[in-house]
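Q: Start with the shorter request: fold the first protein.
A: Done. Sequence, then structure:
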Amino acid sequence: MSHPTATVSSPATASSAPVAEPAPVIEIIGLSKRYDSGFEALKQVDLEIRRGEIFALLGPNGAGKTTLISIICGLVNASAGQVLVDGHDNVSAYRAARAKIGLVPQELTSDAFETVWNTVRFSRGLFGRKPDDAHIERVLKSLSLWDKRKNKLITLSGGMKRRVLIAKALAHEPEILFLDEPTAGVDVALRRDMWEVVRELRASGVTIILTTHYIEEAEEMADRIGVINGGEIVLVREKQALMRQLGSKQLTLQLQQPLASVPPALSHYPLALDEGGSVLVYTYDASDPNAQGQVPISTLLNDIEAAGIRFKDLHTKQSSLEEIFVKLVRERQ
């Protein structure tokens, strides 16, 4: 699939000045949206999207995800603030900004009695691009739609219709692709196929902004994660840094003999019994070994053995992104 690729700067020599980081492909500055009803959907949102990354925007229903995307894509007017798309103001230079963007909306809205081929080909013309049937063919083949090109949309499954939405968004060769809940209602196998398509797009230089309810989707694919709640950006972090910063670990010990309670000698540890007393669980902050009350695991195991407790197996578990997300949202409610 032919897409513009991001420009790669030459490495700086030892004698040259440091090379400045490239400008973000999307800049959102002080963005607010208040509806006539008085509802404030967005509150002074500031956000930068890096060129060539996969950025996952997470948030509960009504958090402002779709409103934010709609404003960036020029579908909804902001009450205040500014959006720059590759340097183009999306209001004063709407056409230039919008031409950079492909949008895959949540809703499956297309002419049900039109063919796949004509639907995607027409989308390219909407952006003033010259006909390029070879590009449309590449897009359809990459999305496993080539065999369906003559089918009318009404005959397709929900998963295939969603692929057609992606094909429409890619028809004019955008540099930035917004995916608003792209795999909602799609079965697990098809979802993983679509993840692979997204990775290939990123590899070709396309910047991907993804909103999703499927936390595993963000955990699997994103480079960075932003959390939005109540119309405000709660945080933006590199995915791995977020999981290190906010995640906790659990040490789980399968006991040889069940316990009725944690022995008094171990009461100063944050230990809990599970599964009828046959499992002992220790939760700790893996990112901060010097946290208050936290001791090396080896010390804990020695104290457990000294208390006469024998175990037959142990394993550790890292917090999932879903657990981190739920914790963040709860803290700010």
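Q: Next, the second protein, separately.
A: Sequence, then structure:
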Amino acid sequence: MLHTHNPVALQALMSETLFSHGETVEQAESVSAHIEPISQTSGEEFIYQGDKSNGVLFILRYADYPYFSPQAEDAFVKTIGALQLSLQNVAIVNLANPHNPNDFKQIMSFFQPRKITLLGVEPASLKLPHIAHNAYMKGRVATVFHTFSFEEMFADTAKKRAFWMEFKTFIGS
């Protein structure tokens, strides 16, 4: 169960617009009492989807969607499914969400990932060294794979093919 009174968190969690008509504050609080905060030991909170315990993290920046466009989400689910992963055993964080810190150290501290995939997120925006597209950089704790967003791959099948060849190796390692 999730508990929150944070309007940004509620916006990310809810897909419909909610209106109140004659509800008391107690009724509204009883509904929100079933939503727990998404926070961990670092003290910072992130709004994310999935499970961070497997150490596989996808970082994206989609301003128009909580995580992916419907077409991109379908492609993402099929892609990770081909490698025995699912939305339930990976973590996905959207840095376009104003609640999520755009700070690599905080991301590392909170998620403690071993494998990070930057989907359309430039490494420089996280103050990381240059990583070519469809290449990865090994750090002390985690390996970072930099690739295109799904929208970029939809527009160019060569990018999609190059991504798939390297991504299979990255996840399998």
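Q: Describe the second briefly.
A: The longest helix spans residues 157-172. Strands lie at 48-50, 56-60, 91-94, 115-119, 135-138, 143-147.
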